[in-house]
Amino acid sequence: MxxxxxxxxxxxxxxxxxxxWVIIDKINPRVPALHAFDGIKFETENxxxxxxxxxxxHKTPKEIIAFREEGTQPNTPGWWVRVVPSxxxxxxxxxxxxxxxxxxxxxxxxxxxxxxIIETPDHHHDLAAVPESQIEKVIWAYRDRIMDLYKDKRIxxxxxxxxxGFMAGATVAHSHSQLIGLPITPKIxxxxxxxxxxxxxxxxxxxxxxxxxxxxxxxxxxxxxSKNFIAFCPYASRFPFEVTIMPLKHDCDFTRISKDxxxxxxxxxxxxxxxxxxALANPPYNMSLHTSPNRTPRIGYWITIxxxxxWHFEIxxxxxxxxGFEIGTSFYYNPTPPELAANILKQFIKKD
Length: 352
Hints:
7 helices, ten-stranded antiparallel β-sheet, alpha+beta, 2 domains, four-stranded antiparallel β-sheet, HIT family, subunit A, 14 strands
């Protein structure tokens, strides 16, 4: 049998039943072992093994951008925040945005981007421990990279997310986020957009603004309100101690964040992450940014989004595993009412 030609791009296949998309690894196909996690090295100590520590810049691809000390050179120590391509990218910037029909199935070739935002040079500090000014730089890196990727019409959506801890999917302990530029708007974002549009069509109001106003009136799930942001445990929290952070001002696009807002958001994120660490003994968590998709590829793409969508962060501590019930039904079972979670977290929120 002739040797199979090695693929240079992964495939993004559409699930015809649920309508979502699945990235199939065609570049490095493998069969996970029963104890697959046993073979994953989780770097927990500072030293030569961590590719994200200063002095190990040669262990990552060359940096895309970095905020660094004046006079220091690219790909050398002296940086505060550093953005590099992923060593093991899910999607690659090379290639065309090619939609293919495979019989009854639909597929898109995996052209996109996969970047890593190294949030601090300090191996032992996560975002809850670094200064607010450091988090502001991280926020600015998110903004700059989304704006740059949205110049590429192949990129429909740029997802910023953070996995902290092994149980949340991280394999390197050094504090970092990731950004994946996708040629398709993800199903969960598309559903958010469609629900927001439906709500706006009925009431001529933003769904997230209505949620925010309801939370501020009821107060019991609100963790803090700053000059520009509100943080609360959602009414229908899917997971224990889930937190949403959103701007008080209506805006669909995170990249329009101002300097003052970025400073304030850094303060809010530090406070919320610190409260989660204190209340839950430094839990693993996932954090993701939900913002507007790239609207340049098509005229009229999500044309009402300026009025009906509202960007926000979602933070989900990983305190329990998703099991058969959730997988089989898409229902979530949450043993911790958000009112109880909010009451506990409020005890650890720092007051101005």
